[in-house]
Design goal:
seven-stranded mixed sheet
Length: 425
């Protein structure tokens, strides 16, 4: 019987301390590999000695350790030694770009950066075993990780915001439309709605909902942004009216969340990360739904915010492309996605799990999945970096009153020029 050695080194990105855990008494070899993404050299016994480095967020270390052990137990063709290090999902892409040779073979990254990393040659297409989950992924998730027909990451959880509401202040029917919500009198000392007009990750929901596009319909045309067209003007005017409404509360520095927990706010936009504190504060009074519709420019439209996905990726120059691909897919399979949800709260993106009782009975998870289906994939082209600061400035100008309906068009034109650089060329 073959005896495998497993090694797991849990290291903090800040503290260079760790420990080794192993089983068996056979030393793992370093192995040799082709750079091909489907083959790698085999040892004399027909079993591959594989050494992998895996980067995960701190809260994922223990469950990832067990998942890798389970994977190894199911794959006699591999003899795996692995190292798990703590590197945040937002930190990993830059770390890989800085030094791909010493970077992890497998790491987490937001889908918004997948196309850029693939274009720079930093990611290996994930082809081996991906077909075991591809049919279970929503089209939006597949689109987010596909570049020129190749899949470069394995999505496992959507990342976007939705709307929490207080059931004592709004009914399930009322929260379907923002204008209905704003028209209601909740009494003295209470606000009806709170979001972050001054935050460029929130303000886009009104423009995208109105029908505007950022970098074209597919999010890939760096010269195209329609935030200054007729629909964009209507969205901007709606935001001006919202910002000046005394029933609106800007969620700056968490004041919206605080008012909501105190029972003084009808509804607030936030994500799954707020669920625990909101549940503790409101108990059975807490509800969660997708973003509402709104009457913008004379049309009832569905607010549509950015969505990206937490994904698992493989670096292009891994010495063990076959095993790394299979493990990346395995870490995102239904069983492990459900474990991650139960242990860490990451709502699974897989459709089969979204329809399961575990998720359906969780109103927060259902709200996230409902909104993810209505959201717009966050563009992943490099020019996305040119959006954030100008959009924030627009929101701040609207909220502070510097941008009015009289000068709105000029400011929208300036916004588009800052993002695309096409108006003053």
């Amino acid at each position: 019987m073959k005896v495998k050695k497993l090694g797991a080194l849990m290291m903090s990105a800040v503290l260079a301390a760790g420990f080794m855990a192993g089983c068996g008494n056979k030393d793992a070899g370093t192995g040799n590999a082709s750079k091909d993404n489907t083959t790698q050299a085999q040892g004399e016994t027909g079993t591959e000695d594989v050494t992998l480095k895996i980067w995960v967020p701190e809260e994922e270390v223990e469950i990832t350790d067990q998942m890798v052990k389970n994977f190894d137990a199911e794959h006699d063709e591999f003899n795996i030694t692995y190292e798990i290090a703590v590197v945040g999902i937002d930190e990993a892409p830059q770390a890989v770009e800085t030094d791909a040779d010493t970077a992890a073979d497998i790491f987490y990254t937001p889908s918004g950066g997948v196309a850029d990393m693939a274009a720079k040659g930093l990611l290996l297409p994930v082809t081996k075993d991906f077909d075991t989950i591809s049919a279970d992924l929503p089209e939006s998730a597949l689109t987010a990780v596909t570049v020129d027909g190749l899949t470069y990451a394995v999505p496992f959880s959507p990342n976007t915001y939705f709307m929490y509401y207080n059931k004592d202040l709004f009914t399930e029917e009322e929260v379907k439309n923002l204008d209905t919500m704003m028209a209601k009198d909740l009494g003295d000392g209470k606000w009806n709605f709170s979001t972050q007009i001054t935050n460029s990750w929130y303000i886009e929901s009104f423009f995208l909902g109105a029908g505007c596009t950022l970098f074209g319909p597919d999010g890939k045309d760096a010269a195209d942004c329609s935030f200054n067209d007729e629909s964009g003007l209507a969205a901007g005017e709606y935001l001006i009216d919202l910002a000046t409404n005394p029933k609106y509360l800007e969620d700056a520095d968490g004041v919206g969340g605080s008012a909501f927990k105190e029972g003084n706010l009808g509804a607030v936009t936030s994500g799954a990360w707020s669920a625990i504190e909101f549940k503790e504060a409101l108990g059975d009074k807490l509800g969660a739904v997708a973003l509402p519709t709104a009457n913008i420019g004379g049309k009832e439209v569905q607010l549509s915010n950015f969505v990206d996905f937490k994904t698992i990726t493989v670096k292009s120059n891994t010495a063990y492309p076959l095993c790394a691909q299979q493990l990346a897919v395995y870490l995102a399979n239904p069983e492990n996605s459900l474990t991650r949800y139960k242990e860490q709260g990451d709502v699974p993106v897989l459709k089969s799990l979204a329809d399961s009782d575990d998720i359906k009975n969780d109103f927060v998870a259902s709200a996230l999945n409902d909104q993810a289906a209505l959201a717009t994939n966050q563009p992943s082209i490099p020019q996305m970096g040119d959006y954030w600061t100008p959009a924030q400035a627009l929101g701040e100008g609207i909220y502070n009153g510097d941008i009015t309906k009289a000068n709105l068009q000029d400011n929208l034109d300036a916004l588009v020029d800052s993002i695309t650089g096409t108006l003053t060329e």
